[in-house]
Amino acid sequence: MATPDSDRRLSKFLSLVLRHQPQLIGLRLDDAGWADVAELLERLQQHGRGVSRATLQAVVDHNDKQRFAFSPDGQRIRANQGHSVAIELGYQPQMPPALLYHGTAERNLASIREHGLLRQKRHHVHLSADVATARSVGQRYGRPVVLAIAARQMHDLGHPFYQSGNGVWLTDSVPPQFILGAAE
Ligand code: HQG
Q1: What is the per-residue pLDDT across 8-37, written as a single tens digit (0 to 9) for each?
Q2: Quick one: pLDDT at residue 166?
Q3: Cα(48) to centroid of ligand 1, in Å?
Q4: How far is 69 from 81, CA to CA, in rounded Å?
Q5: What pLDDT, on a 0 to 100 scale, did the predictor assign at position 3?
Q6: Contact residues for 86 (Cβ-Cβ < 8 A; gap 6+)
Q7: Is the dihedral of CA 121, 127, 128, 132 positive or negative?
Q8: Which alpha helices (H) appear in 32-176, and where do they start and end?
């Protein structure tokens, strides 16, 4: 039976195979990160994590951050962002608001001030439209600090911004001069 715990485990495992290691269960992602839903269900089954189509649907629908999306015909599924595998999500560049926010751990600050925000293992630097979301992202790594980013100014100077299917703002990197400081 599906429980909050089993749903969370499935969500975490989906993040793993849809963003980072599809090969773990022999899953194929296309160039835009889509997996065939029938194939995913079959592979999960083969690897001792079998779930029904309805459970998968519920976990995608109720995911706290809307991490996953089905294609309009419901035949395919992908993660909305956060990948480390080489795929092209195909988001169109968009104009960001004047300010976006990035939550990080206090211990990263000196390096960020020196080098700017780097995408590390992911495809992009992730930015939030509001301070509260950014703070909760930063909390994952330690005492959180929220940095305000001059996003519109970056955009106007030619840095493309994208918004993922779940509202996270993405950009390639944020040079130090666009980091305005801690937003409390
Ligand atoms: C830091 C979660 C030192 C950066 C969240 C961050 C988000 C630097 C860490 C999404 C640095 C990378 C992404 C530099 C960046 N020196 N540290 N120059 N530049 N950093 O997890 O933004 O639950 O890859 O501040 O909610 O924390 O997975 O990125 O602390 O939306 O759906 O390097 O992941 O979503 O960490 O989080 P991450 P993130 P999910």
Answers
A1: 999 999 999 999 999 999 999 999 999 999
A2: 87
A3: 31
A4: 10
A5: 76
A6: none
A7: positive
A8: 37-46, 53-62, 109-115, 131-138, 151-156
What's the mean pLDDT in 123-142? 95
The distance of Cα 10 from the centroid of its chain, to the nearest Å, equals 17
What is the pLDDT averaged over residues 46-62?
95
Structure tokens at 135: 């703070």
**pLDDT tens digits for 58-69?**
999 999 899 999
d(CA 82, CA 74): 21
pTM greater than 0.90: no
Show the ligand 1 pocket: residues with CB < 6 angstroms. Answer: 65, 67, 82, 104-105, 108, 111-112, 115, 117-118, 120-122, 126, 137, 141, 168
For 70, counting Cβ atoms within 10 Å of its Cβ (0-12 exposed, 13-18 middle, 19+ buried), the class is middle
**Which protein residue has the closest C-alpha to ligand 1 atom 32?**
67
Determine the pLDDT at residue 165: 86
User: Residue 14 belongs to what H/E stretch?
Assistant: helix 4-15
Q: Are 139 and 76 in contact (CB under 8 A)?
A: no
Return the number of other C-beta atoms located less than 10 Å from residue 114's C-beta. Answer: 8
